[in-house]
Design goal:
The complex is a heterodimer of chains A (111) and B (110). Chain A is mostly beta strands. Chain A is 0% helix and 46% strand. Chain A contains no helices and eleven strands. Chain B has a single domain, classed as Sandwich (Immunoglobulin-like). Chain B contains no helices and eleven strands. Classes of the chains: A mainly beta (111), B mainly beta (110).
Amino acid sequence: EADIYQTPRYLVIGTGKKITLECSQTMGHDKMYWYQQDPGMELHLIHYSYGVNSTEKGDLSSESTVSRIRTEHFPLTLESARPSHTSQYLCASSEVWDTQYFGPGTRLTVL
Amino acid sequence: EDKVVQSPLSLVVHEGDTVTLNCSYEVTNFRSLLWYKQEKKAPTFLFMLTSSGIEKKSGRLSSILDKKELSSILNITATQTGDSAIYLCAGRGGSEKLVFGKGTKLTVNP
């Protein structure tokens, strides 16, 4: 069983606020990922990391930023939230690219 | 551009039925195809299929990769209400990133 955690699970926030979505894993995985998923739509990769001090942008353009200062921690930050950022954000980690273990997700609503 | 298409998008069956979910992929330098089950929360890993491992089985679930047709199926026999979920298919190619389909929403009624 994979141990990957996300907080908060639900967040409702007003436009213009700065938010940070937390993601932590206890498996020692080097690779970590952030996906965005809208209802009925595909998961889209927005950020990933090969390891500490490594961050890359994914296939879907996102106004968010990420950091990887510790192996177990991969937070995602939105400097100024907008209604278009309303979505579910899923964090994942893996040893290799294929078998990714997902966290429970954060459902973000920006009013 | 890499693409994964799943069908049907939605399926409603009765307990005990057998279902087949489909996934077709266009992935450059194909390396693997993965199936995930997504209930209310996180997707959970089911199977990974590669050129060297084209058939996997676990209990009532099984999956086959057809390299010629660039497709895969996920079979669930003797379905139970607990099988109700969204089933995601993802392909991995040379870019190493996973490309996901939209998923098939399966509802199993008692």
